[in-house]
Each structure stands twice: as C-alpha cells, then as structure tokens.
Amino acid sequence: MRVLVTGGAGYIGSHVVRQLLARESEVVVVDDLVTGDERRIPGVPVVRADLADTAEMPRLVRALDGVDAVIHFAARKRVDESVLRPEWYYRQNVGGMANLLSAMESAGVDAMVFSSSAAVYGTSEGASIPESAPTEPISPYGQTKLIGERMLTDVAAARAFRSASLRYFNVAGAGSPELGDTAVLNLVPMVFEKLDAGKSPVIFGDDYPTPDGTCIRDYIHVSDLAAAHVAALDAIVEGRIEGNRAYNIGTGAGSSVREMMSAIAEASGIRIEPRIAPRRDGDAAVVVADPSRARDELGWSATRGLRDIVMSAWRSHELLVAGAHG
Ligand SMILES: NC(=O)c1ccc[n+]([C@@H]2O[C@H](COP(=O)([O-])OP(=O)(O)OC[C@H]3O[C@@H](n4cnc5c(N)ncnc54)[C@H](O)[C@@H]3O)[C@@H](O)[C@H]2O)c1
C-alpha cells in the first residue's frame, strides 16, 4: 500500500510513518517543516510544501500519483494562537484541507484518515464522552477541526470517498526517545519545563468535584494513537467504513492532574511540590473518552497506561535536554 502522510515529520505523524514502514507500506510525506523535523523519519521522501498555498497544488497532485490513501496531520495546533490569529488558522487548517481534497480529487485518491481532536466537543464533559456528544468547539482551532470533519462528510456525499476522523484525547509519551513532543503545549511537557527551571509545576484548581479535587483527563500514548491510524486506514481500504466516520481515540480511563504529577515524580526521581492556582476559565472537571466505537469497528484499543506514557516522555525529554547542552 502507498500512503501519503501530510505532517509526517511532526510528533504524531512521525510515529505513524514508522509504524507504516514497519509493515512495509510505501510512504511519502508532505510537510512544510515549520514545526516538523525530517530527522524523525530518515530515508522517507519528503515533499516540502505548505498545503495552504494553492500554488503548491500541482506538486501535491504529482505526489499523490499512485497513492492509495492519505493520512492528514498537517495543521497548526496552538489553541491560544488560534484565538489571536483566527484568520490565519482558518486559512492554514481549513484552506489546507480544501487544497488537499481538491488535489486528491484530481489524482483520483478517495480515502483519508484525518487528525481531529476532542476539542470538537468544546465544553462537553463526563467520564465517558461518546461521538454523539454535542460538538460546539470553543476555540478557532477546535472549529477548524470540526469544519475539517464536515468537509469530509460533504465530499463523501458527493463522490466515492471514505474517511475516518480520529478525535484524539490527551496525547503524550514517545514511541522512542528521539520522537518526543518538542512543543510545550500539554500538561506533561509543561511540568517538565517547570522542573528544568527548578520551579514548582502549577495545578489550576484543586476544588473540582473529583476524588482529589483536580481535573481528570484521558491520556493516550502516542504509539497507541499511531496504531489507531493504521487500524482506521485498514478499515477504509477494506471497505469497512462508509462516508466519513468519527472515532474517539482515548483509553476510556481518566487520570487526575495530581496523579499525573505523582507519575512524573516517580519517572524523573524529582520531588514535586505543586503550587495551587485558581481554576482557569473553560476547564471542565472530567473529560474522558468513550472509545467503544473504535474498539468495535476498528478492532483498536489502547494498550499502554500512564506509567508507560510518563516514562517514555521523560526519557525523550532527557535526550532533548542532553542534546541542548551537548
Ligand atoms: N498533539 C496533540 O495533543 C494533538 C491533539 C489533538 C489533535 N492533534 C492534531 O494532530 C495533528 C498532528 O499534531 P502534532 O502534535 O504531531 O503536531 P506537530 O506540529 O508536531 O505536527 C504537525 C506537522 O504538520 C506540519 N504542518 C503544519 N501545517 C502545515 C501546512 N500548512 N502545510 C504543510 N505542513 C504543515 C508541521 O511542520 C509538522 O510537521 C495536528 O493536526 C493536530 O491538530 C494533536
């Protein structure tokens, strides 16, 4: 099978590229390398192009020649930045998707796995959020993901086209140390950054209606997430998915911020004394996936727990710090 992976030089994309190569798929990557790094995927052909740039369309169509399916990761992902620069986010993420879909139509490629996000649920909360929960994103970033899903639904209604939109919950960890997340946007890298600076990590609110008072989230190991893409790809190619189908990708089990900090203390050997700050606006108490659709329809379930996630993230962080000082 030949697969074109957009954003394949990024954190999640590179994990998927490696899993595809391990099962002998042919891979071509399209990436503008703004946040990605080609060294994560040695030997893989990379077409360096910004998907949002319509002038790049002919190159994109050529890259799609002979491709069976696309896995589409390329997107900007900073929620805070999307609030400040919504026009640019829509141009990048929605414009990029429109260009990609047009190029796929020209090249006759009719299958896609799309990186969506639990951000499409907005303020929905609970210990078992199903795909049927209301989708009301609260940031332009979340909107771009929901619009992406709707574009896929519309394209699938117009022509023979099948896709899976994977709604990721909280992604962390590393499949191998050199593939870690270098962005400091999520809880695990944020705690590491504080520890590096010799500062106390912050807990925003310890008076939530949860057992230890801190927020609960569903943390998914990036290698499990990568495996979900491969499972979705197979389901599409084998004709088991009709139209565009959304799947929650999480473990179905939640961990609190305090539990996460204890796991980080254990992995790093560093004593952590968090500072308690007031709640942040918009943080729900509990956000955990109901992942049963992915289990039933894709045959996929997460296999790694919090310890694996945190240990692998810490090893990767140590490598990054050693590189910065070496
Ligand atoms: N990391 C998370 O916690 C998380 C959660 C939910 C959804 N997602 C989604 O997963 C996808 C991958 O995220 P990631 O964490 O690997 O981020 P990342 O920044 O490491 O990877 C994104 C990759 O896409 C490339 N890219 C971005 N915009 C592009 C464009 N216009 N044209 C060409 N290349 C472009 C970047 O250079 C990078 O290699 C994104 O779509 C993101 O929105 C991530």
Write a brief caption for the model.
With 326 residues, this protein is an alpha/beta fold. The strands form 4 sheets. The protein has a 7-stranded parallel sheet, with helices on both faces. Strands 6-15-10-13 form a 4-stranded mixed sheet. 48% of the residues are buried.
Give an account of the 3D structure.
The protein has helices at residues 11-22, 57-63, 79-84, 86-107, 140-158, 187-196, 222-237, 257-268, 292-298, 306-325; strands at 2-6, 26-31, 46-48, 69-72, 111-117, 126-129, 162-168, 170-172, 202-204, 216-217, 219-221, 244-249, 255-256, 275-277, 286-289. The radius of gyration is 19 Å and the shape is globular. It folds into 2 domains: 2-171 and 219-249, Rossmann fold; 173-218 and 252-325, UDP-galactose 4-epimerase, domain 1. A 7-stranded parallel beta sheet has the order 3-2-1-4-5-7-12, with helices on both faces. It is built from 10 helices and 15 strands. The chain has 326 residues and is an alpha/beta fold. Helices cover 40% and strands 19% of the residues. The model has no long low-confidence stretch (mean pLDDT 97). Helix 4 runs parallel beside helix 5 (140-158) and helix 8 packs across helix 10. Strand 1 (2-6), helix 1 (11-22) and strand 2 (26-31) form a beta-alpha-beta unit. Bound molecules: nicotinamide-adenine-dinucleotide. The site of nicotinamide-adenine-dinucleotide has 27 residues, from helix 1, helix 4 and strand 5.
- Tally of DSSP helical segments: 10
* Binned strand content: 15-25%
Bound molecules: nicotinamide-adenine-dinucleotide
Question: What name does the CATH topology of the largest domain carry?
Answer: Rossmann fold
Structural class: alpha/beta
CATH homologous superfamily designation of the largest domain: NAD(P)-binding Rossmann-like Domain
Low-confidence runs (pLDDT<50, min 5 residues)? none
Termini separation (Å)? 40 Å
Strand order of the largest sheet: 3-2-1-4-5-7-12
- Approximate helicity band: 40-55%
